[in-house]
Amino acid sequence: MRSKSYYWLALFMCFFAISCDNTEDGSYVDPITIYEKVNGNWGLTNLKMVDEFAKANKIEPSEENLSTFFNYEDFKINFSVDEKNKPTSYEVTGNVPPLFAPKGYWELSSDFQQTNASAVKIYLYSDAAKTQKTDELRVTSVPGNNDEMEFQLVHSSGGTPFVTYVFKLNAIN
């Protein structure tokens, strides 16, 4: 009887020893930046214009879907990065009226999504040195495993927004 209990104890100790094996998790890699997520070609799935004055004063309609007007279904944008995932140029293609400069250079306000309420912004520039800012896009939905992105372009007068364009895009492979 005693030999059976030693047998179970020995068997238990073997399993315990095997379970203490350290797993190799691989080497450290840098975290994924928003530049890596935004990089590439994007096609428009929806473009909405929001009249900020009408919205603030509860006047209907305050929103208009522009996706099928003015050839916006052809809207595509490419954000390029270099081999170190640093932003280089962007270009809008498609026969669409420009809501912002159709080509230039870009950078983000932050490499990573912020934990506070502020949205990451895409700054658009006319020059490679990034000294002449032309527009600013507010990223409201960062691309993730669903390959979707949303950004807003806000037009203001005297610091008061009067119209916001909401772009919803899907990654194009």
Characterization of this structure:
- This protein has 3 helices and 9 strands.
- The chain is α+β, with helices and mostly antiparallel strands.
Q: Could you give a short description of this structure?
A:
The chain is α+β, with helices and mostly antiparallel strands and 173 residues long. Helix content is 16%, strand content 42%.
Our estimate of the beta-strand percent is 35-45%
Structural class, by secondary structure, is alpha+beta
The helix count comes to 3
Biggest sheet statistics: 8 strands, antiparallel, barrel
The N- to C-terminal Cα distance equals 69 Å
Average pLDDT works out at: 84
Fraction of residues in helices? 10-25%
Helices and strands, in order, run as HHEHEEEEEEEE
Across the major sheet, the strand order is: 1-3-4-5-6-7-8-9
Low-confidence stretches: none
Indicate the radius of gyration in whole angstroms: 26 Å
